Amino acid sequence: MRSGWVERDAQALVAAGAKSGLDRELALRIYTTRLLGSDPKLVLYGGGNTSLKTRMRDLLGAEVDVLRIKASGADMATIEAEGFPAVRLAALRGLRAIDALDDEALLGVERASLIDPAAPNPSVEIMLHAFLPHKFVDHTHARAVLSVIDQPNGEERCAELYAGRLAFVPYRMPGFGLAKQAIEIFERTKPGDGLVLGKHGIVTFGDDAREAYERMIEMVTLAEDLVERNRKSVAVAGPRRDIAPVVAVAPIVRGACSQKDAKIEGAWRRLVLEFRTGEAVLNFFDAADLHRLSQAGVATPDHTIRAKNWPLLLPYPQFSELDAFAGTARAAASKFAAHYHGYFERHNQRVGGGKNELDPLPRVALVPGLGLFGLGRSKRAAIIAADIAEEWIAVVAGAERVGRFESISEAEMFDCEYWPLEQAKLGRKQEPPLAGQIAAITGAAGAIGAATAKAFAAAGAEVALLDIDLAAASEQAKMVGATALPVQCDVTDPASVRAAFATIASAFGGVDIVVLNAGAAWQGRIGEVDEAILRQSFELNFYGHQRVAQAAIRIMLAQATGGCLLFNVSKQAVNPGPNFGPYGVPKAALLALMRQYALDYGADGIRANAVNADRIRSGLLTAEMIAARAKARGVSEQDYMSGNLLGREVTADDVAQAFLHQALALKTTADVTTVDGGNIAAAMR
Ligand SMILES: [Zn+2]
User: Fold this and answer.
1) Using CA atoms, how far apart are residues 551 and 256, in angstroms rounded to an integer?
2) Does the pLDDT value for residue 238 go beyond 90?
3) Helical spans, DSSP H, in 509-644
4) Percentage of the chain with pLDDT > 90?
5) What pLDDT, on the 0 to 100 scale, is given for residue 426?
6) Which member of 52, 82, 146, 227 has the greatest number of CB atoms within 10 A?
7) Lowest mean pLDDT among 276-285, 484-493, 501-510, 524-533
8) Ligand 1: distance of its center to the CA of 513 in Å?
9) DSSP strand pairing (166-169 vs 194-197)
10) How far is the CA of 38 from the centre of ligand 1 (A)?
11) SS3 for 204-237, per residue?
């Protein structure tokens, strides 16, 4: 590992900081923190922290010694000055005299000692930084260091490798107790470069930013070299025979790792997936004693809150035996959940009760021969879990080269997983109603499709926007959110529909809600219209939806957690307009199709509903058409658009809300919801 320090960049940041009143030391603190944070071999998702001891004026103008410490959960790669709350150092140092301090009391002292009372909470490792005398202190969970110290004899390994330059602090849960223990060992052994925190990470220090940072790089490089020297020749994986593709495996894994809601009949707790594979992952599966390692535990304590302590280990997915794979996967996932529940019960009792059990579902699933899945309540959480799983594999593979991987104990993992300060990193927001669900919308670049995508994303679903026009779908996806997935899909082409659903299953793991919305209008007097036009309309407005519904049903059945098909049927299905036969007749067939799906798949928990919308500004009813029709009827455009019983114009957002309502109404199937402002001729009977 090379130092990323570039003098020119450091000076540029100092110069830029000076303009906004940042002093040189803080600017350099920001600079090296970003260097550390941008290397995943050092730091992942808030798993590290840095500090600076300096002087500044408090709100009353008095100059005081402060600790500028990284805020809890702040991203080191992009940190700014606000990410380093300033805490009065004297108040923190005063705590040395106390034997033990609980988290709440400690947080109280910290908040009471902030220079800016509105600053974010400091890192949970604040006291370790406060007690050490050095101006700059850097702490990471560096991969190679973990490979060396996650061992039964980690202390000896550390002594051999660092020869007293780093003192060894035996594992202890992060917090006040660890900080006290670390400073006592530091004062007794006087290491020159820093500390190793057993089964947890590394600390380096220095008088200036560069010294502390480059000591970190040097110490990590020593560990990297040791791991590299022990590289064993790995048997190259043989051909993977008869292996099922990710698109077939993902929905099975996703279904297996979902949980029926005990309180609401028909509701499921579902997770979104992120797939990863590659040489490192596949070789690990082939070479390692996978069963032992899958039970071995975390690489560093804070991984537990995002990836749980153990991955779910699944069998090799043989394509010709997918049903057997599904059965084994479900059994393995429910065993995992039962094991997690037992782990919670045991340790909750040990600590005197009072903890709330988190869901018992896996956050990482290993599929030998194929790759791994990160699982989360959102795509973002799944990506984080997958990143941590890959990091875990790298640490464990390295540790097995050096010796034998060993994690902290089950009790120690529980104490970290259920430590309120760790859980606080995840936030305490109420989850949105569609969290964990995946929605696909056809015709998503159009007015109703785009409004529906936005409404579903706002309700917490991950959204795939399918449209024949990929550029337009991409535009809309950008407005929906960072994880929204644009997919090119021509619903009149079976291969295109198959490919689109394969893309969705690969990207998210499956699908729960499909809004069948693509469409176009053809006109003609039914007795004289060219049959080719009628067939063209049926191809899009009927067969297109049938194809999409079939592709969705295949995935929903593999998941075995129900699902929901929502058809945009239009009022034409029940209230045909003159010369609109080529559009209205396939729409009437579509209404029958919706009912057939409701009938045939109700027993599988799959619902089918329809929305009959009318007179919405969209690609089917353009501004020119509105102007022409209003003129033909001798009314204003406004009156034309609100020509209904309520006298209100109906918008694409109104239709989107109707679809959302149907997605949430778990006891409703074969329903038609009319969104037209009131039109008795189009009312259902
Ligand atoms: Zn740490």
Assistant:
1) 20
2) no
3) 531-538, 544-559, 581-601, 623-633, 637-641
4) 88
5) 66
6) 146
7) 276-285
8) 40
9) parallel
10) 16
11) EEECCHHHHHHHHHHHHHHHHHHHHHCCCCCCCC
State the distance from the centre of ligand 1 to the C-alpha of 121, rounded, in angstroms: 16
Of 6-10, 424-428, 438-442, 668-672, the range with the lowest mean pLDDT is 424-428
Ligand 1 centroid to Cα of residue 150, in Å, is 14
Centre of ligand 1 to C-alpha 346, Å, is 26
Distance in Å, CA 125 to ligand 1 centroid: 7
Ligand 1 centre distance from Cα of residue 140 (Å):
6
For tokens 């009314």, name the residue.
635
Q: Which residues surround ligand 1, an ion (CB under 5 A)?
A: 201
Amino acid letter at 298? V
> What separation in Å is there between the alpha carbon of 202 and the centre of ligand 1?
8
Euclidean distance between CA atoms 553 and 537, whole angstroms: 23
Q: Which two tokens stand for residue 595?
A: 């009912």
Q: What is the pLDDT of residue 241?
A: 84
**399-437 pLDDT tens trace:** 999 999 999 999 999 999 998 776 776 666 789 999 999
Which residue from 494, 486, 610 is spatially nearest to 554, judged by alpha carbons?
Answer: 494
The C-alpha atoms of residue 289 and residue 285 are separated, in whole angstroms, by: 8
Cβ partners under 8 Å of residue 558, min gap 6 = 248, 251, 252, 255, 326, 510
Asked whether the predicted pLDDT for residue 101 surpasses 90, the reply is no
Q: What is the pLDDT of residue 46?
A: 73
Distance from the alpha carbon of residue 14 to the mean position of ligand 1, in angstroms:
28
Q: Is 685 exposed, middle or buried (0-12, 13-18, 19+ CB in 10 A)?
A: exposed
Q: Tell me how far the alpha carbon of residue 73 lies from the centroid of ligand 1, in angstroms.
A: 12
Ligand 1 centroid to residue 9 C-alpha, Å: 27
- Residue 373: both structure tokens together: 């899945």
Here the tokens at position 281 are 């992952």
What spacing in Å lies between the alpha carbon of 373 and ligand 1's midpoint?
A: 25
Assess contact for 331 and 256: CB atoms under 8 A.
Answer: no
Chain centre distance of CA 342: 26
pLDDT in tens, 601-619: 999 999 999 999 999 998 8
| Ligand 1 centroid, distance to 226 Cα (angstroms) | 22
Q: Could you tell me if 48 and 139 are in contact, meaning their C-beta atoms sit under 8 angstroms apart?
A: yes
CA angle 484, 485, 489 (to 5 degrees): 140
- Cα 210–chain centre separation: 34
> Ligand 1 mean position to 200 CA, how many Å?
6
pLDDT in tens, 1-53: 999 999 999 999 999 999 988 999 999 999 999 999 999 999 988 789 999 99
Q: How far is the CA of 489 from the centre of ligand 1 (A)?
A: 46
Backbone CA torsion sign across 624, 630, 636, 638: negative
- Average pLDDT for the chain: 94
Please state, as a whole number, how many other Cβ atoms lie within 10 Å of the Cβ of residue 197.
27
